[in-house]
Amino acid sequence: MSDLKYIFSFSGKNKLYFKLAFLFVVVESFIEMVIPVIMAAIIDDGVMNKDIGLIINRGILMGICAVIAMITGLLYAFFIAKASNGLAFSLREAEYAKIQEYSFSNLDDFSTSSLITRMTSDINVIQNAITNGFRPVVRGPIMMIWGIILASWLSFKLSLVFFVCIPVLAILLYFISSKAAPMYNRLQTIIDKVNSFVQENLTAIRAIKAFVREDYRENLFNDINSEAARTSRKTFGVTVLNLPSFQLTMYASTVMIMWLGGSMIINDELKVGELTGVLSYVMQVMNSLMLISNAFLLMARSLASAKRVSEVMQENTELASPENPVKKIPDGSIEFKNVSFKYKKSAQEYALSNITLNIDAGSTIGLIGGTGSAKSSLVQLIPRLYDATEGAVFVGGTNVKDYDITALRDAVGIVLQKNVLFSGTIRDNLLWGNENASETELAEALKISCADEFVYSLPNGLDTELGQGGVNISGGQKQRLCIARTILKKPQILILDDSTSAVDMATDRKIRERLKRLPDMTKIIIAQRINSIMDSDKIIILEDGHINAAGTHEELLDKNEIYSELYYTQSAQAEE
């Protein structure tokens, strides 16, 4: 319940709509409770005494009550729709904003498909629970309590049937609800798996077709889909017991009241109108219990979804700006002091160990090492995409933890290994680097990254539409656009994480030469090809998370076995 309470804390301006919906459903319930009393009076005082005037007056009164009940019902439906849709909007907005605050380590705790499900399916479950469950939760108890009171007022002896049937029904409904709750949680988890599989298939559809693995992936999907179907059948197989339990209790109550009431009428202990009124209240009380039971089932499912949404919202953001952050980065100098890092606190081994390194502002640094040597892990500590587990990282002479995160990341431009472009035009994607960039600045960034070689030859130039993820351009073209986008930021530190791997060596050389036009910018180039970093001011070799050696190309070629072996191997391959 604490999760639902937390979810409702996002009601905000929608609280008024909830209050109005509550008011109208209460009024509607009280109006409907009066109608059986009026109906009993019509039968016993009007029909039995042949009083036409009383029948007409009471009939008009019943009609007025029905109209008021209809109007209040419509008003309730209007305000609860606004309230539930408003709450869903606020939840999605808050959840999306929270995810934007996540560090990489936070994102490691949730799969992409799970975050999508929690922002869509789970919030829809909560919204539907409010839309369909608010009325029963409010109306049910009111009608049950007043139904028992008014039935007792008409005939206390007949109303004793309630005290036998209600506990039986309550026990049955509690059993069903308690069984269904954990099954709903399991169902939402299965939906995560289905979404994850579909997302992976759509992302890798070209590889699937290239390897002719459609049938294999379809069989895997059928397995996951069958699991989802089995879980759904099992879950709803329990919840469908709700209706038979209600009907059994309701019909048993009706038979008992008819039998007992008929005996009392024969013995002149009860009037026909009073029996009719009691039967009406029986139906209302049983319907209220049915409404409550349905609300419990909706709540059981919404509790599972509320917990999943709350987990996203209440995730502790591990990286945050300090209380009085430094907002100006003086220069692009970088220093690592005894830095060690691991992705999980529970991990037994460090990805980086005892890194001590100085990088002067405006210098060009080459970073090389085997796969898994933690090159990307090292540079991700500079803009605080992750925090060092031990030691400290300094930029411009100040600990990165003392900077405002936004200011720090604005000063560090990083082109990650996985190139990401968004749907829209080439211009739209480039303006991510600087939304106020002029045509001259765009042209200069494209020239430095050698992207001008293909962009201006396209029919629409900068206004060429890119498909999702840039599917209509090559990998090398993506890399060059990502470099241009980052250059437009005019960062003090530029990090190229193996971001020219898909371009030819001639283009790679031109990019490196043109980057020299930016002398005040510190450049860190991660590469697998020695040709990409050999003219750097300093080259650092990483091996298993340690610095193996550091120096110029000539120094390492002369003194370092790993570097010289790699150089001669690549040179031989180039000659062949």
Text of the CATH class of the largest domain: Mainly Alpha
Assembly state here?
Answer: single chain
Q: What share of the residues does DSSP label as strand, in percent?
A: 5-15%
Helix content: 55-70%
In short:
The chain is of the alpha/beta class and 576 residues long. 62% of the residues lie in helices and 10% in strands.
Walkthrough of the structure:
This protein is α/β, with parallel strands linked by helices. It has 2 domains: 2-313, ABC transporter type 1, transmembrane domain (ABC transporter transmembrane region fold), CATH 1.20.1560; 334-417 and 492-575, Rossmann fold. It is 62% helix and 10% strand. It contains 21 helices and 12 strands. The chain has helices at residues 2-8, 15-47, 52-101, 104-107, 112-119, 121-154, 156-159, 162-203, 205-210, 214-239, 242-266, 272-313, 375-380, 405-411, 426-430, 439-448, 452-455, 475-487, 505-515, 553-559, 561-575; strands spanning 334-341, 352-359, 364-369, 390-395, 398-399, 412-415, 424-425, 465-466, 493-497, 522-526, 538-543, 546-551. A 6-stranded mixed β-sheet has the order 6-9-10-3-11-12. Strands 2-1-4-5 form a 4-stranded antiparallel β-sheet, with no helix packed on it. A two-stranded antiparallel ribbon has the order 7-8. Helix 19 (505-515) links the parallel strand 9 (493-497) and strand 10 (522-526). Helix 2 runs parallel beside helix 6, helix 2 packs antiparallel against helix 12 (272-313) and helix 3 packs antiparallel against helix 6. It is elongated.
